[in-house]
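Hey L., structure's done. Input below.
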Amino acid sequence: MPPPQRLIGIVGKTNVGKSTFFAAATLAQVEIANHPFTTIEPNVGVGYVKVRCAHVELGLPKCDPATGYCLEGWRFIPVKLMDVAGLIPGAHQGRGLGNKFLDDLRKADALILVVDAAGATDPEGRPAKPGSYDPVEEVRWLERELDEWYYRIVSRDWDRFAKSLYDRNPVEALAQRLSGIGVAKHHVERVLRETGLEAKHPREWSREELREFASRLRRVSKPMLIAANKADLDPAPENIERMRRELPYPVVPTSAAAELALRRAARAGLIRYIPGDSSFTILDESRLTREQRRALEYIEERVLKRYGSTGVQEALNKTVFELLDMIVVYPVEDANRYTDSKGRVLPDAYLVPRGTTARQLAYMIHTDLGKTFLYAIDARSKRRIGEDHVLENGAVVKIVAAAAKR
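Output:
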């Protein structure tokens, strides 16, 4: 059984294209409209990261994915996406749907912040003249809302909590206290080290230090990428360059509307298009209406030639492989044929944290396999590897375990 899918939150203020981004990434049917608060209940769906499939490197004719799919040598591996209600200023105080929005994000492993790079929506999410609002400021106030949310959770009953730590490990206690928002022990350790607060007992922290701890913890436990959406509209290109200079997050130029149009056209058999590609091929000109042809020409000129892709697939890949530092490994049962017990070739592609060992992979596959682990085989080299061997990206691995006792 594959490990639990990572959860990526699709966030941003209202009316910037979050639901379009979600629909493009998942091809789910969600409500998309040009007014605030279209999304009220979170939409949860499956998107995919894209990697070159191991079957190509191994010289195999095909693979047989049990989850996800493989298209022309590209393996698409599932990740869970959640599109939540939009933010407006004051959301952490309950304005709009702020409390619900933030509660929905508790279990997210990373965030994709969809921003109107053209500056064509005001802070309340109402349509405005392109260029009339600053997307850099949009990111900054969204940061403040997220920081205030974290601070509210961290500081709740802080004095009583800090006093209770006289005979407890502060790191473990903080991690346990904040586990409900996805904070782990290694997150706490890192933030304490980076802020220098590891040298002070929590009961000695000032309110300013507590705020700094909460803000840093938010960045570490909910790493964030900016999807600079509506990148086809002027003055988005200039704004995107400024966002890259002034913001501490990766920024990906994005046109969610273009990606959604291309995927729908491909599904309808009008074009050949693989998500993330820099071009598409029209399969039958006669089937296109004049409006469809004009739309495709616009996407080609204003998006693909300008940026190299629509940005949707790139945003997902960067979030998983760079922000979350995941790698892909392929567990198999037959190291010679690269198959499982049913004869399927490379059926599983696991997304696992970089640094995962062979034994840790065994536990991900099945608890009993981890407990009875003997050794593993690197199917590419046919070399035996031990329990502490750190797996590399693209590894194909057979786990060998002791026979179960009867």
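The chain has a mean pLDDT of 90. The chain is about 35% helix and 20% strand.

-- N.
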